[in-house]
Amino acid sequence: MTEFANGISAGAGPLQIAKGPDGNLWFTESSGRIGRISPGGAVTEFPVGTTPNPGLRGITSGPDGNLWFTEMYANRVGRITPSGSVTEFSTGIPPSAALDGITSGADGNIWFAEMGAIGRITPSGVVTEFTNGLLHDQPNAITAGPDGNLWFTECGDMVGRITPKGTVTQFTVGISPNAGTADIVAGPDGNLWFTEYCANKIGRITPTGVVTEFSTGITPRAGLDDIASGSDGNLWFTEGDADKIGRITPTGVVTEFSYALPNGARPFGIAPGPDGNMWFTEIAANEIGSITTQ
Asked: In this model, does residue 61 exceed pLDDT 80?
């Protein structure tokens, strides 16, 4: 495990992280900047727009060779080129949308989660929102599924699926009550995997909606946050309250890693890097970490 702090502004609060098209990792900062870190640890930060506190959240590589991100408080979707040029889009996004997770879809568009809706934005910035069945819900994380659909978590105990045309199906059977479903990612086994912050479990859901939960080997009250697929064929996740990085195999065997992480580091976002390692953010320690998968 290696940690990097040089070049990250004091109080930046790194949040979500994603592998970029340029061979670097890109991350959002609570303070309102986008960060870029090379596999060697060189950090560059880029300011975003003019809103003092836009509430940067999710970030993903887009189909156009750029990075796309959400602004929870400013109610915008942003695009940043590998050279750091930022464009923001707000037309078609309602006030108080509270944008959160974001991902690229198989249809060549970018999809994002927001209060009471799932949004879609084209690479040219045209937004379409889908609210059927979601008006009273709070989608948070979203990922592209192996079935060509988008899958998302909702606050509470629900996983949702939306087709590229906007048809929504929601699943609750097999998910612990008040699980606190958080992040979600497509796994190497053709299923979707998600974290349950409150239930302290990792969930797996098949494309047909069959859920299995795993808790053995997870530290009590670990605070499971983000999850990502690794190059080793396993799933990797952050434990923000336990200051650990976890690994779960497709069969549900959990291993936790905590060496080198200071108490109170608060690991949060996690993503596979171009070097085969898993890269993660540390909100409280104000650092970016890397852990080998072998």
From this structure: yes
